[in-house]
Amino acid sequence: MTSILQISDTHFGTEQPPVVQALEAHVREHGADLLIFSGDITQRARRGQFAAARAFVERLRGHGIGETLVIPGNHDIPLYNLFARFLTPYGNYRRHFGEELEPVFENEQMLVIGLNTTHPRRHKDGRVTAEQVEAVAQRLARTDGDKVRIVVAHQPFGAMLQSDLSNLQHGAEAALRRWAELGLDLVMGGHIHLPYVLPLSGQYQGLAREIWMVQAGTTLSSRLRGTSPNSFNRLKLTPGAQKKVCVERWDMLDGHFALGSHFNLGWP
């Protein structure tokens, strides 16, 4: 069985040291084959915030993380430094996490495609372009159907609450319809600091197959949403003709992360 640890919206610059320590303790105990970091790494895209985030990821690797896949969020573009925002919007991100803004990870069990849905001309909205839709489609078309196939983007593709409809990716429906035809299983994201697991056929009727939305909360930041605690997701994958995914949400409770809920996903 292959395991994925998904963290998101750490907003370094607002991270809480006891929560950081608790997550590191969890990784030391449980490890993971792949770390997915679904954006808003920093609060204001400053060099020191990125350096702290990079050091944190390196510690996680030392504690038992195998591989990493990291994408930027809207907070990872400078907000107040307009010169940097429009001339070198991903400069600090690339300095600490590499040149690639849309990384891909593939092994015998899974295909994970990262998308950069941010843009310096948009404050927070996400957009999936026609070019991105087609690039993902081509990658799905040439991938073994027994693998668990995942797209990761910062902003969500599906909403649990009516108030979050305005936070959805622009271009989401066209993208999902195209990718469903080619066998996409999961889309993962963050952005709204609200964790949930959602079948997207309820929002986008007539999809060729079910695509599940796996949303992460804010893992380390003090910028909590309502009563949702700091949290992260752990996915356990069983590839094959009857593929299965168990999604666990781990919540910060009494100084440590504890299992909060789990969902067993499957496809006919």
From TrEMBL:
A Pfam short name: Metallophos
InterPro entries, per database record: Calcineurin-like_PHP (IPR004843), CNP_phosphodiesterase-III (IPR050884), Metallo-depent_PP-like (IPR029052)
Entry coiled-coil feature ranges: none
Keywords, ordered alphabetically: Exonuclease, Hydrolase, Iron, Metal-binding, Nuclease
GO molecular function: exonuclease activity; metal ion binding
Domain Calcineurin-like phosphoesterase: 3-194
Keyword ATP-binding: no
SUPFAM superfamilies linked to this entry: Metallo-dependent phosphatases
Keyword Iron (UniProt): yes
Family, per entry: Belongs to the cyclic nucleotide phosphodiesterase class-III family.
Protein name as annotated: DNA repair exonuclease
Organism annotation: Stutzerimonas stutzeri
